[in-house]
Design a protein that fits this description.
15 helices; Farnesyl Diphosphate Synthase; about 0% strand; about 70% helix; mainly alpha; 2 strands; magnesium
Length: about 300
């Protein structure tokens, strides 16, 4: 079996494990508000790479050699936040996409009003889920790290992170966006949650402060490469593979890295930024071959 096939098997196995872990935190579909629980679970079970919880898990393993119990609620929480952003992105007032991951987007399935509420519900439920980490220890140092992780998750989600980037993106939609503002949008809208994931994994894993700074820089590079590749796939991808309509950015007259720099330069820059990310990874103590392979795989992904 080739190294690529071995990695694919390992990736599939770890994705399935994460899927199972996330499933344990999803709400039961009962009660008068059953519809919102159904819509939340519909959104969460639509699939996806589970990249953010996987990066969090592997960063913890880099520093500890194992997956700590306190990390698991945060893995579920960060995926809930990511999913909430996708639910809102698809709304008619945003990207107006009726398909997500090969099936009807949440608002298309449940209506625009429930779509808004589902995104809100998932974001709030994420913090309720993350707070379960406090039940995993009574050690003051560990509890302090969990508190710090909660702060990271909130900051990287809010106005200084994902929502801040989304705001600038919405304000500038439909017109030309200069390169510095596009980089700002990508760093916050996409990069912030990836930074949160990796930084939380490192913090809960007991990483030293200087190593946390390297992790944040590494994660920012991964986020930028990931978003540029997303722009490339919007031009070159097939709906059968990506699970969403091609040309969505062009339809919405969005400025992307591809429209600014051209397709070939975008491809070269993804490769360059990813190489720099691997160099940052190699500065950290410990070893995690799977994490390095995962970062490399993001560059060549087709969905």
């Amino acid at each position: 079996m080739s190294d690529k096939e071995t990695f694919k098997q390992e990736l599939d196995a770890r994705t399935a494990e994460i899927e199972q872990l996330i499933g344990t935190y999803l709400p039961e579909e009962t009660g008068h508000q059953k519809t919102i629980f159904e819509a939340m679970n519909y959104s969460m079970k639509a699939g996806g790479k589970r990249l953010r919880p996987m990066l969090m898990q592997e960063m913890c393993r880099l520093f500890t050699g194992t997956l700590l119990e306190a990390v698991i609620p945060f893995m579920a929480a960060v995926e809930m936040i990511h999913t909430s952003s996708l639910v809102h992105d698809d709304l008619p007032c945003m990207d107006d996409d009726m398909m997500r991951r090969g099936k009807a987007s949440t608002w298309a399935e449940y209506g625009e009003d429930i779509g808004v509420l589902t995104g809100d519900a998932l974001m709030m439920y994420a913090f309720e889920t993350a707070a379960n980490a406090f039940e995993t220890s009574i050690d003051p140092d560990e509890l302090s790290r969990i508190g710090r992780a909660m702060g990271i998750l909130a900051r990287k989600t809010g106005v200084y992170g994902m929502i801040g980037g989304q705001t600038v993106d919405v304000e500038l939609a439909g017109g030309p966006i200069p390169g510095d503002k596009l980089e700002f949008i990508y760093r916050l809208k996409t990069g912030a949650l990836i930074e949160a994931s990796m930084l939380i994994g490192a913090v809960l894993g007991g990483a030293a402060e200087e190593d946390c700074k390297i992790v944040e820089s590494l994660a920012a590079k991964i986020g930028m490469a990931f978003q540029i590749q997303d722009d490339i796939l919007d031009v070159t991808g097939s709906q059968d593979v990506t699970g969403k309509p091609s040309g969505s950015d062009e339809k919405n007259k969005k400025t992307t890295y591809v429209t600014l720099e051209g397709l070939e330069k975008a491809k070269k820059d993804v490769e360059q930024i990813s190489t720099e990310a691997i160099e940052e990874l190699n500065k950290l103590p410990g070893n995690n071959d799977f994490l390095e392979q995962l970062i490399r795989a993001l560059v060549g992904r087709q969905k």
